[in-house]
Amino acid sequence: MVERRKPIPINKAVEMVMNYRLKGQKEIISIHESDHRRLAEPIIAKNNVPSFDKSPYDGFALRSIDTDKASTNNPMEFEVVEHIGAGQVPTKTLGKGQATRIMTGAKIPDGADCIAMFEICKSYERNNNPFMSIKRKMNKDQNIIKEGSEVLEGKVLIEEGTIINPGVKALLATFGYNQVEVAKKPIVGIIATGTELLEVDEDLKPGKIRNSNAYMIASQINKAGGISKYYGKLADEFDTSYEAMKKALDEVDILITTGGVSVGDFDLMPAIYEKLKAEVLFNKVAMRPGSVTTVAVIEDKILFGLSGNPSACYVGFELFTRPIIQHYLYNKKPYLKRIKAILADGFPKPNPFTRFVRSYITYDNASVYVHLAGMDKSNVVTSLANSTCLMVLPGGTRGFKAGDEVEALLLDDMYGQSDF
Ligand SMILES: Nc1nc2c(c(=O)[nH]1)N[C@H]1C(S)=C(S)[C@@H](COP(=O)(O)OP(=O)(O)OC[C@H]3O[C@@H](n4cnc5c(N)ncnc54)[C@H](O)[C@@H]3O)O[C@H]1N2
Ligand code: MOO
Ligand SMILES: [Mg+2]
């Protein structure tokens, strides 16, 4: 009599896995190599921004008080005492009737309290000396970017766990983070099991299929921020599979296997877990696809037994393995971002289990629509390529029709959310 497994709720399964979450190590890397990595330290403003009062325009620095009587009929004349560009430090303190010719980004000279743009000034020379005049009254602090007006020294700008995007990288450079502390990438091992499997460079033979899961999972690991380590494909043979898993477990932070987790005669994972003395957290989840997803722990290592069926394998990774990797990488929002969307196509078939339907999102007139990406079967591979989200259709007795509001988990969002 075949073993009857009791499915556990998805939330419970996610919670059980996350009880074994580990924060990874930190490492210090050059800013040049930091794209897409996750910060293992906060970014703190190490100085005021700007760190000096500066000009936002090319023009003249003046004392506003000297323009009080300026008008169209009464231009005020100023002697231009200095000429500075960005990066130069003014040396002259402005006195009554004096101006400094100043460029965008340059430090405001002492004595000046406003900037008049070139466009409202007239420049000329008299006896080979530069002068300017203005026909408008200027106000104190007009057109001056004040020291610290953007950020004050000491402010925490970016929290640890944030992904380094181009804007974060600009901040690293702004505050002199030549080296930055990031989360070390976890090494995630992959073993594909199945006597039917061929490698990608092999010709098809009767009864055989190419191993697509290992390549798909490697790509999911990379996308999630881990380092994948492929241990090859194994025939459904107990001793070699056991030895390969034992060896891999010594070398990786997380181990993923695909196939062999169900109740078939050649599904060896349950017996291998037993021999490895791994504690099985669950081996059946109330969901489709991926109901056979099995998670086990052995000391501080976590072992994901993902389904052999490609769509089930894919979903199992995104729901259970990805959050573990995200937590390892210090991401405080380790779960897939969940949004509400309008179902564009009907899904009339009811299902007792919650379905994670491979789908994609479109936007139209301020509304978000979710469309089926292809055939919705756990054994299909073709719908995955078009998927940008997993539509969540709760289990029950009814189907869903176009126009219904549903939830969707975004697959390409790098930021995530803090709860499942
Ligand atoms: N009597 C029952 N049979 C099955 C049950 C069940 O509850 N009772 N569950 C079904 C469900 S649901 C799924 S999902 C599959 C899970 O099977 P396994 O995880 O044990 O995987 P395999 O049996 O090894 O293979 C299943 C399927 O996937 C193909 N496969 C395997 N590896 C790969 C790979 N690396 N790349 C591409 N495709 C792969 C394999 O050829 C099989 O077709 O079990 C159901 N059965
Ligand atoms: O684990 Mo199976 O996909 O539920 O189809
Ligand atoms: Mg099987």
From TrEMBL:
Gene3D superfamilies, A to Z: MoaB/Mog-like domain, MoeA, C-terminal, domain IV, Molybdopterin biosynthesis moea protein, domain 2, Molybdopterin biosynthesis moea protein, domain 3
UniProt EC number: 2.10.1.1
Coiled-coil segments: none
Statement: the UniProt record of this protein carries the keyword Transferase: yes
One GO MF term: molybdopterin molybdotransferase activity
Record GO biological process: Mo-molybdopterin cofactor biosynthetic process
Cofactors required: Mg(2+)
Keywords: Magnesium, Metal-binding, Molybdenum, Molybdenum cofactor biosynthesis, Transferase
MoaB/Mog domain span: 189-327
InterPro entries: MoaB/Mog-like_dom_sf, MoaB/Mog_dom, MoeA-like, MoeA_C_domain_IV, MoeA_C_domain_IV_sf, MoeA_linker/N, MoeA_linker/N_sf
Reactions this protein catalyses: adenylyl-molybdopterin + molybdate = Mo-molybdopterin + AMP + H(+)
Pathway: Cofactor biosynthesis; molybdopterin biosynthesis
This protein's GO CC annotations: cytosol
Family assignment from sequence similarity: Belongs to the MoeA family.
Role description: Catalyzes the insertion of molybdate into adenylated molybdopterin with the concomitant release of AMP.
PANTHER family from the UniProt entry: GEPHYRIN, MOLYBDOPTERIN BIOSYNTHESIS PROTEIN
Protein name: Molybdopterin molybdenumtransferase
The organism of origin for this protein: Virgibacillus profundi
